[in-house]
Design goal:
- 74% of the residues lie in helices and 2% in strands.
- The protein is mainly α.
- It has a two-stranded antiparallel sheet with strand order 1-2.
- A hairpin with a 5-residue loop joins strand 1 and strand 2.
- The radius of gyration is 22 Å and the shape is globular.
Length: 443
């Protein structure tokens, strides 16, 4: 940030204030993401702990060498993130004591997700992590000392920076105009309609909660909820409710949509694009797309990745609107550029930068095959970060507090109506552009 400074001659010179770069959680998410990208690209981080599918014996989920890799990851991640905690004004000692316990709970959630039962019904790690955290916090209660490591936003913002690595512009261009239309034309319409419905019809009290749930529904679930919640200044429990609703319905849609597409004999291209534009989670889209075969997997996942690009755009627009309109002071003064910058979620810059670096530097220099190797590592880190984030959300949430935001059923009604509109509009547009109506089926 630039601040004017007057010298002895009265001339104004600009002085750079670097402090926020080392004190804000948003910036540390960028630095952590950068460190992980460097480790991945340099080959220094290739052996992340990974569980295997199991059915009868829980212990078979842990392959040889798993726990050694897990200990190394816990120590390394703990030390690096503790440095950030120190600069952000936290207590690194308390954090380092609690962090291994939170990570062990994340391993437990990964273990449940690796079971044959979970694989069969696509019950992914975030759902198990949230359930484990909620079970502890609403029964035996989360110990006070453990809360020092519940850095939900730090974990998930860093994970979102790494998500940017996976959005390669080459894949966006592969589907061309049809993919862009499904992802970038339908989504803004759904956002406007759903927010209007929540604000004018349901008359939801919190506009911040309204836009957070709207973004989660129309863009990409958890990631959009975190980004938009940060941009609008939504309360932590409002973001948690939006995430919880999104996760529950994501599981239902992930199972029901591919089954419905197969049952009615829908064109695979149309069905895949439909799922890519409506199912909230990227991982759930990939899982659902796999039911439609390789082509269905590719189309659904690329449409979703194109849609994910809107995370940064939506967050920026929301930050701009909330500063200039929703957050305007009683004096009616217009927001300055500085106010907009302060509200803007900085980790989105890391998300965009990661996408640009991987798309226009790594792919041309190293080649797609090598970059896939880099991505396998960044995806691994992102998976663990999301597991830590959802464990933290659960441990830091109280069902009574969460139920207060669902009182009267307005958030559920908003989600169902908004997602219903999204399903109908996206299916119609997917049929137009992927069904051979507006464009030839040559892709």
């Amino acid at each position: 940030m630039l601040q004017p400074n007057v010298n002895g001659n009265g001339a104004i010179r600009k002085k750079i204030n670097w402090a926020p770069l080392w004190k804000l959680e948003d910036w540390w998410a960028v630095w952590f993401g950068l460190i992980i990208i460097i480790l991945s690209a340099s080959g220094l981080a290739v052996k992340l702990p990974k569980l295997t599918k199991w059915s009868t014996s829980l212990f078979s989920a842990f392959p040889e060498g798993f726990w050694l890799k897990a200990v190394v990851l816990i120590i390394g991640a703990g030390i690096v993130t503790a440095i950030g905690i120190k600069f952000m004004g936290g207590n690194p000692s308390k954090y380092l004591i609690a962090f291994p316990v939170v990570f062990l709970l994340a391993i437990l959630s990964e273990t449940f997700a690796a079971s044959s039962f979970a694989k069969a019904y696509n019950l992914e790690t975030p759902l198990w992590a949230l359930a484990i955290g909620l079970l502890i916090s609403n029964t035996i209660k989360t110990p006070v000392w453990l809360k020092a490591a519940l850095k939900t936003e730090m974990f998930i913002k860093t994970g979102l920076v790494l998500l940017g690595c996976e959005i390669l512009f080459g894949r966006i261009l592969a589907l061309g105009l049809p993919g862009l239309i499904v992802a970038w034309v339908v989504t803004p319409i759904v956002i406007l309609v759903m927010f209007w419905f929540g604000d004018r019809v349901l008359k939801m009290e919190s506009k911040e909660f309204n836009i957070t749930l709207t973004a989660a529904t129309s863009v990409c679930g958890v990631s959009a909820a975190i980004a938009t919640g940060a941009a609008s200044g939504a309360k932590k429990d409002e973001v948690s409710v939006a995430i919880t609703i999104s996760l529950i319905f994501t599981v239902l849609m992930m199972i029901a949509m591919p089954a419905f597409i197969r049952m009615v004999g829908m064109d695979i291209d149309v069905g895949a694009a439909w799922m890519g534009g409506t199912i909230d989670s990227t991982g759930a889209v990939v899982a659902a797309g796999a039911f439609l075969g390789q082509r269905g997997l590719e189309i659904s996942s690329v449409v979703k990745m194109i849609q994910n690009v809107l995370i940064g755009v939506v967050a920026f627009i929301v930050a701009l609107i909330w500063v200039t309109k929703m957050g305007r002071t009683e004096s009616g003064q217009h927001a300055t550029a500085k106010e907009i910058w302060v509200r803007f979620p900085k980790f989105i810059l890391g998300f965009v930068a990661a996408s640009l670096v991987f798309s226009f530097i790594f792919v041309p220099v190293f080649g797609e095959k090598t970059v896939e190797g880099f991505l396998s590592v960044t995806k691994g880190f992102r998976g663990w970060l999301f597991a830590l984030a959802f464990i933290s959300i659960g441990l830091d949430s109280n069902m009574r507090e969460l139920s207060r935001h669902i009182k009267g059923g307005k958030p559920i009604i908003q989600y169902v109506v908004g997602q219903g509109f999204n399903l109908i509009l996206t299916l119609f547009v997917a049929w137009l552009v992927f069904g051979g109506i507006l464009f030839p089926k040559s892709f």
